[in-house]
Amino acid sequence: MKLLLEERGAEVVITEEVINAVATSGQESVLHIISTHPMMLSYQEKWLAIAQFYKAAELGNKRKIQSLLERGVEPDLPNPRKVTPLCIAATNGHIEVVRLLLETKSVNVNATSVSGRSSIFRAAANGYEEIVRLLLNAGADPTFIDTNGDTALLVSKKYGFRSV
């Protein structure tokens, strides 16, 4: 990417879709590389904050999430695979981040990825019973069926998490 931008500069087309994919993958370093491109100049701060938000959700960094929320970062922006920060936090067992995101009342607890999996599906598949409870209390629907024909309950049993 760096070489391409150095050699071809303005000929390189960087769409908002590309920038979204980079940011929602938490790739702050790639955003820094493309930040000199004319398309990026007006969006740089916004997309860097989104990249930091996704990375913080993945790592369970509640303080960073709180700070970014206070700066106005949209907490429910999905990545190209339709996975949200809530789904990422639930997948990784970051209960405090899940709790914080739910408290914003700005996240769709039933948002599904392209594979039809919601946050409750991901938490159940990984045996995170307390996160499943939080999501249920927030209105999560445990009956969604993913593209494999599984529900959160079926997957949790499949992976041996009978208490979920």
TrEMBL record:
<keyword id="KW-0677">Repeat</keyword>
<feature type="repeat" description="ANK">
    <location>
        <begin position="115"/>
        <end position="147"/>
    </location>
</feature>
<dbReference type="InterPro" id="IPR055530">
    <property type="entry name" value="DUF7104"/>
</dbReference>
<dbReference type="Pfam" id="PF12796">
    <property type="entry name" value="Ank_2"/>
</dbReference>
<dbReference type="InterPro" id="IPR036770">
    <property type="entry name" value="Ankyrin_rpt-contain_sf"/>
</dbReference>
<dbReference type="InterPro" id="IPR002110">
    <property type="entry name" value="Ankyrin_rpt"/>
</dbReference>
<feature type="repeat" description="ANK">
    <location>
        <begin position="81"/>
        <end position="103"/>
    </location>
</feature>
<keyword id="KW-0040">ANK repeat</keyword>
<protein>
    <submittedName>
        <fullName>Uncharacterized protein</fullName>
    </submittedName>
</protein>
<dbReference type="Pfam" id="PF23397">
    <property type="entry name" value="DUF7104"/>
</dbReference>
